[in-house]
Queue: 4 jobs
Job 1
Amino acid sequence: MTTTGRDGTAGRDGTAGQDGTAGQAVGDRFRVVPASYVVFLRRDGDRDQVLLQLRQGTGFMDGHWAAAAAGHVERGESATQAACREAAEELDVVVALADLEPITAMHRTQGTGDPLDERVDFFFACRRWSGEPRIVERHKSAALEWFDLAALPDPVVPHERLILAALRDRTLCPVTTFGFHRPS
């Protein structure tokens, strides 16, 4: 027996979604990949500076500057736990959960249609940590440098540049999107 949604259409798996629209088979759904980013900030006189790493050997945006610590959230791990873990793994610094300031969540895509294309990124500002940041994963990072937020290097990973520019301009929204087509 096939069931239908309130609009009278049936889903591919023959069931209606909770909102009354046609449902999709679980295998057809996109899998959103979560990641956490730590935006390390400091003041240098009257200027805000951000710590960036130069990507290499990762297969994604190599040769671009990026957040000094970022990575996928692992199974059973919260976004904040992932941020602290990535800071330790990539920079050899300790960040307390209380020192992470959520600044935005970004839903992004490259528009490939691939089921693993859509991402949700959690961005955290961090102004206090223990230890001196250093490159730990030399096979993934060619350099680690502080830059003025008002004078970012080129190139920066595009979706991260959007966040850094909004942070600089104080226009950051709680939720940001990147790569989705706007309706005509």
Job 2
Amino acid sequence: MIGKRLREVRKKKNFTLQELAELTGFTASYISQIERDLIEPSITALRKLCAALDQKIYYFLDDAPLDPIIVRRDKRQKLKLHNTSISYEFISPMGTQSSYNPQVEVIQIDIQPKEWSSTESFSHNADEIVFILRGELTVILNSDAEERTEVLNSGDSLYILPNVKHRLFNATDEITRILSIITPPIY
């Protein structure tokens, strides 16, 4: 995998093997062996090659598939909490949907008029961004020392730190739709 990517980057930058060899201090033969996946470079050698090609090292080390993981609108996982009219639709793939283990969770949440997200404030060990897609949302943030209330409107966002207790309320007569982005995933 490193070799194929190295060759692609070198050619994109219009370097010959010899030119890259001169920039790095390696031989053209050594670089050719790497490109053909006959040998693997050390991290030190890879850093030199990356510096010469102005490329980040993770590009060569990342074995993640290049194919996108698509979640079709009609195939989204849905969750409805008991005793509420709140609905969750998972925009991002859930870990159970593929062999890939997502590191971020994106959820569209509809909160019905005059409804709370939960009966009590809750927290999770994850960073969360709440983005208001439509409507108005009242957010109550709790700590041992204080309680704070924020009212957010369409287009507003709120960043909630890990382990901060919070509760959401739709005080209006229309559905409020939010996007919740959480990392690491909690569902």
Job 3
Amino acid sequence: MDTAANGGNMNLILMGMLALFMVFMIFSTRSQKKREEEKQKQISALEKGDRVVILGGIIGTVAGFKDNTIEVKISENTKITVLRSGIVAILSKGEAN
């Protein structure tokens, strides 16, 4: 009799752990989607002169826009074209001169 009750308790514990794991995954996914949406809003709101970090850690200034790309000025006479998805971060005015 004790072994049957013990097995039932173990099943209950496992079901509780599974439910907790599912709740954690749902909240984790929702917060990740929210961060991604916020990043997309920021990229859509970019203007000429804004400072950005692109993949590879290159810091530059937005020089122009095309369909799905952005021209980034990385030095006095050098501009590169990157996909909007290549923007890693948008720097505030005082960051990384």
Job 4
Amino acid sequence: MIVYATKLTIRKAAIGLAVLGGILWGITALAPRAAQAVAAQIDSQSISQKLKDNDARVSYLQEFGWMVEETPLVEMEVQIPKEFDGAYQQYNEIQLRQGLDLTKYRGKRAMLYTYTVLDYPTQEEGVTASLVLYKNRVIAADISAANAEGFTHGLTERPSAAATAAEPSGEQNPQAPAEQKTAQDTTE
């Protein structure tokens, strides 16, 4: 056994306190970021779920507070483009804000399911909820209206009736990219 004895001086105590302060600062500075990263991962996992059938898709939309008609308006296969144009980049920004990312699915074929929203805060007609699924996993989700003042926003955003009446929420995009006719209709 080796024993090391030293005399405590003011210089050694100051260095020790500086090192201890640095360690404590590092822990307090990095811990919130780590907690945010874990929270973002949990949020991403909660929105990106496997949905095997129509009942699961309708329940999923209801979990986020959206009442929809149980029969989808659209059920079709879509192709996620390999290169994103401006509209797809804007649409992916909406997805990124809610913990999803379409860039992983470039060039892949996915299924689009669009439902009529029955309870949009402004009581506006023609509002739809769209889910894009790859191998039954949600990879994109949005709420949109294709009217003249159209909008698209994330599934996790629920604008208040007053804010929505004052100005449209989300991106000004009359037609979400997932709804563009880029694939064959497979409506059943």
